[in-house]
Every structure is written in structure tokens, then in C-alpha cells.
Amino acid sequence: MDIHPILSAQAIYRQAVSDLFRRRHVVAAGLGYKIRGTVPTNELSLVVSVTRKVPVSELSSDDLIPQAVSGLPTDVVETGRIRAHMPEHVRLRRRPGQPGMSVGHREITAGTFGLLVQRQGEPYILSNNHVLANNNAASIGDPIYQPGPADSGTAADQLATLAEYEPLDFGDNPGECHVVRTLANLVNLIARLSGSNHRLEPIKQTPGLNLMDAALALPDGPSLVLSEILGIGIPTGITEPFLGQTVQKVGRTTSLTQGIVTQINATVNVDFAGRTARFSDQVFATAMSSPGDSGSAIMDMERQAVGLLFAGSERVTIFTPLERILTRFGVELVTT
Fold this sequence. Notes:
The structure is a single chain. This protein has 3 domains: 3-78, GMP Synthetase, Chain A, domain 3, CATH 3.30.300; 84-168 and 209-333, Thrombin, subunit H; 172-205, no CATH class. The relative contact order is 0.18. It has helices spanning 3-20, 129-132, 178-193, 322-329, and strands at 26-36, 39-50, 68-69, 72-78, 83-84, 102-105, 111-112, 115-119, 122-127, 143-145, 158-165, 172-174, 203-205, 209-210, 215-219, 237-238, 246-251, 255-272, 275-286, 297-300, 304-312, 316-321, 332-333. It is mostly beta strands.
């Protein structure tokens, strides 16, 4: 692929993405090849994902997606609402634990053991924050079950403990300012004395932009986990995602599936059980996952690790490039 059109398109995308998200029904935007009718082309475009396509007559001028942005063609695709994947089907307990199996924090339903990574020779389970850390609600040291609770996992099935996670930013974290907290307490005291049931909770506005949904769990013993991905094998290394790339994954719900990378550099709004978090610089693939597959490793056909799956819809699968996650946690992929 010629790198110069990609660089030019990335510059246009960065200028346009904020404006696109102001339009009704838009849930994601990224770079991909335009599809005319049902036929894929080699025409690089700004792909705008919407919850549903509606007739132009039902849209205001402010909500219309232009046919091109600064000369870059647009392509509007219907993906439905993007959700963090939660489970549906039952999976069993297995020892040693392996990537592709059902895992989960004791307070969630279930997700997928993605990859085995290591730091200074110590192995860790890599999966999503919403799988291992319960959307920021967990504490370090909390138990991780295999299988996850939705698959009948209990305290007797503990495989690991939560070691570290990248917090999810929903743009509305509790405020920490001492002055504001004192003022809120005073207002709440007055409300209580007056008989009101309403209370004031200070909220700190945050950037609300995420680069990953990821967490690590420390196995209860090195012999309790393997690096071999069920149905795929031991990873051979790491590679970057690119448009048109064929990828595969093994997940807790849909097992072994394949897809094609359709967008890069994507910004997307993801629904976490009613709370929305925006992610930037993500990758879209064709539909190859279902609820419960969150945390799965995205691999190429040579068993090189490409990314970590965390969300999707009936029409798309979304993942984060793996190298970014490994760098964030200071870990390396186990390839033996």
C-alpha cells in the first residue's frame, strides 16, 4: 500500500472526526476502502459508522454526512450500536488455563482469556478491563475465575488475581477537589435538614478519550496457565494491523472465527451497560465475534498477534493494536 495517501487521509480524518461525532446516529469514524453497493473497491475513504441509515428527508442539514471531506470520499455504513461484548453461552473449567477460554472477575459475567504475557519472567493473563477489572470497580488482588461467573465459575474456580488495569474514562469521574467536596457536603447537610432526599455529588470532567480496554491478572501459579491459544497454537510474534488483512480469533462464545480488517485509525463510542466511553485509534474488522468474546486475541494467519478484541456489533468487530497495550503495561508476549 502506498503510504502517502494514507498519511494524507489521516490528516483529513484528524481534522474531521470531532465534527462527524456531532451528527445524529454517528457511532464511529475511521479510514477504510469504500464499498459501492456490495462490492469492495480500492478507493481509500473516510468510513462513517451509524446506528442505522435513515432517508435523507428525515435528517437535518447538520446531520447529513458529506459525500467527501477535503477531497476524501466518505462511506456511510450501518453497524448498529457498538457494545462492549458480554457473554451468552456456557464454557467449562479447564486446567491449565489457556487463551480462548472463559474467564472473568467475580462480579462480572464472563469474557475471554486473551494472551499470556510476561514481565521479568513472571506470567500474566491479558484481557479487557471490563472482563478482569469490572469497568474500574474492582480492586487489585480481586479473584479471577475460570470459567467466568456466567459459566458457573465460583470461588473454587479461581485461576488468578487482578494485577493491573488501564482505567476506562467515561468523562465523568468523581471530583477530588477539597474545596468542591467541602461545598458539596455543606449543601447536602442543608438538604438533609430541610427534608430533601436529593444529594449533590461533585463530578470532574475528564477528556473521556480511551486508547484501550485492557487489564492483567496474575495466575495463582505459573503451571496453571499455557501460552497456546486453543485452536490456533502458540503465538509466533507480533505484527501491526492493516487494511484488507485476514485475521482470526478464538473467543469464549464463538470459538474460532475469521474476519477482514476494514478500518484503521477509528474513533468509536462504545456502550458499557448504559455508560458510553469513546475510544480513538482503534481497528474495525468484519463481524467475527459475539458477546462473551471480549478479551480475545486477534491473530493473523501466521499466528502473529495483531490486537485485543473488546467490542463490536452484529456487523463489526473492534480491537486495539496489541503493541500499544504491551507497551502500556511493560510486558512482552509469551511465544514458547
